[in-house]
Amino acid sequence: GAGVSQSPSNKVTEKGKDVELRCDPISGHTALYWYRQSLGQGLEFLIYFQGNSAPDKSGLPSDRFSAERTGGSVSTLTIQRTQQEDSAVYLCASSLVWGGIDEQYFGPGTRLTVT
Amino acid sequence: GENVEQHPSTLSVQEGDSAVIKCTYSDSASNYFPWYKQELGKRPQLIIDIRSNVGEKKDQRIAVTLNKTAKHFSLHITETQPEDSAVYFCAASIWGKLQFGAGTQVVVTP
Description:
The complex is a heterodimer.
Chain A: E1 5-7, E2 10-13, E3 19-24, E4 31-37, E5 43-50, E6 65-69, E7 75-79, E8 88-95, E9 105-106, E10 110-114
Parallel strand pairs in A: 2-10
Antiparallel strand pairs in A: 1-3, 3-7, 4-5, 4-8, 6-7, 8-9, 8-10
Chain B: E1 4-7, E2 10-14, E3 19-25, E4 32-38, E5 45-51, E6 56-59, E7 62-67, E8 72-77, E9 86-94, E10 97-100, E11 104-109
Parallel strand pairs in B: 2-11
Antiparallel strand pairs in B: 1-3, 3-8, 4-5, 4-9, 6-7, 7-8, 9-10, 9-11
């Protein structure tokens, strides 16, 4: 079946502009995660949607970052007033169940460049 | 919060030799430990995982061991092949939130 998809694949934006990144999880997956990967670095947890519960936002680096998940499916990560340090690959993942012991399937990522 | 350390950062092995990557974690509540392989420009892909109630798991040339007392876990790749060249990430999960290690660049030379 279809895997996790993300759009756009690449986004170049000017410093100070807002951006929206989209994630379509695997159908039926109840948990959705956002991570950030800076060039040559590991993956940094951002936010985690777990079923109908309140999301775990503990990884969001500042209040310029927000995310929502509508209808338990598609998610949008919004970065307001982008800064150059926001440049990274933003990866979305989903898993069938939440609770932490299930494989997370990653999307291809959105490469964000802030000029 | 959870902190995961991964060593070495780079690993060069001859084809056919074994590769070992080690990770330590800080939070004893972590209960799931996946390993991901990431090729250049591609998404991370799960290669093996282990849950906290298991000490060892093997899948063909890949094995993972977990020592809960010492809070460390290791990835073992035997009979390495050139296609094993990639960056490998360990992670520890507390209720779904994955904390990743910094990654190990593995280079397998023919």
